[in-house]
Design goal:
Blueprint: E1 6-17, E2 27-36, E3 39-48, H1 56-81, H2 85-110, E4 118-124, E5 127-133, E6 137-141, E7 145-147, H3 154-160, H4 166-171, E8 191-196, E9 202-206, H5 208-211, H6 216-223, H7 237-257, E10 264-275
Antiparallel strand pairs: 1-10, 2-3, 3-4, 4-5, 5-8, 6-7, 6-9, 9-10
Helix pairs in contact: 1-2
Length: about 280
């Protein structure tokens, strides 16, 4: 059955927590579901303001708002003119660099250096599209679990090159050093990813604070919400969303109890479909 025979629906949840050590939450996020001429679309964004830099929350909020407005105002125009994956990549590249210039100029004007990561996911007509800068992550969970994004960090690059083991990367003093972020480089070059999704998949978009103290098995068990066999998961998306939000809050309390000191943020998007 092709994507054109499916009517996709999305149930969403999101939560962010300042954590146990920081006075300000520098994470920002948004998740939206909207009806379009191509059916329902879901859009999620997480930005992690640069830790240690002043006003990181300003940078992350600026980028989240820019992408939120893009989804609400610009995506419908793109769909009306004729959507293509190549067009989306170019539009997102331009938007990331527009944000990069705005934050850099604001930083100079305020004499306050700032920056942010960016990870955004669009779900539309059976396909996912991701634009990614930094070290937030996107996972998809179905029968198994797959990390879709690659961390743009010094240690991730060293592991990929074979210069460091994954175990060494976990404790290396440079593990939080980013290769690029919005507002701190001359030109941002986001990763652009795409692929198919399937009925009953769950997407997890999270900041690094959400995953530091959880194994992938724990992430899967906590966050993959299957409708089958769960009596408390009724066929009502509002109630399902409340359940998923409660799950995220529960997980974050566990993460804090394990000693996480960073801000903690996550978004869940549950995919279901009906044959038209």
């Amino acid at each position: 059955i092709g994507a054109g025979n499916m009517k996709w629906h999305y149930t969403v949840a999101a939560h962010t927590d300042v954590g146990t050590a920081k006075a300000v939450n520098q994470d920002s996020l948004t998740v939206k579901v909207a009806n379009t001429i191509c059916g329902e679309a879901a859009f999620a964004v997480i930005c992690d303001g640069m830790g240690g830099l002043e006003q990181g929350e300003v940078a992350s909020t600026m980028v989240v708002r820019a992408y939120e407005q893009w989804f609400l105002k610009n995506l419908p125009q793109i769909l009306a003119r004729g959507f293509s994956e190549e067009i989306l990549e170019k539009v997102w590249y331009r938007l990331a660099n527009d944000c990069n210039v705005r934050i850099a100029e604001y930083s100079v004007a305020q004499k306050a250096p700032m920056g942010t990561t960016l990870t955004a996911v669009l779900l539309l007509e059976g396909r996912y599209y991701i634009t990614h800068v930094g070290d937030c992550r996107v996972y998809v969970m179905g029968n198994g679990m797959e990390q879709l994004t690659t961390d743009q960090t010094y240690v991730a690059r060293e592991v990929a090159l074979g210069h460091m083991t994954p175990e060494q990367a976990l404790t290396d003093a440079r593990r939080n050093v980013l290769l690029q972020s919005i507002g701190t480089v001359k030109c941002v070059k986001p990763d652009y990813l795409m692929g198919d999704f399937y009925n009953d998949d769950t997407f997890l978009v999270c900041s690094d604070g959400f995953r530091h103290h959880l194994t992938e098995i724990e992430l899967y068990n906590y966050c993959h919400t299957s409708l089958e066999g769960m009596e408390w998961f009724v066929e009502n998306r509002l109630n399902n969303s409340h359940f998923m939000n409660g799950r995220l809050r529960y997980v974050m309390e566990n993460i804090k109890a394990r000693g996480e000191r960073d801000n903690i943020s996550a978004i869940l998007i549950k995919v279901t479909n009906a044959i038209e």
